[in-house]
From TrEMBL:
Pfam families, per the entry: PARP
GO MF terms, alphabetically ordered: NAD+ poly-ADP-ribosyltransferase activity
Principal EC category: transferase
EC numbers for this chain: 2.4.2.-
Key words, A-Z: Glycosyltransferase, NAD, Transferase
Source domain of life: Eukaryota
Name under which the protein is recorded: Poly [ADP-ribose] polymerase
Domain PARP catalytic: residue ranges: 1-48
Amino acid sequence: FGEAIICSDASAEAARYGFTAVDRPDGFLVLAVVALGDKIIEISSIPG
């Protein structure tokens, strides 16, 4: 998936995404509280 922030409620699934490669066995796993909601649409200019 490349560089991304992936949220999961299963620790084993999250650990699988944090795995880098066989020659680089180090990875990162962050424990965080995530809230999902409506999209925020950024408007760069005033319409009209």
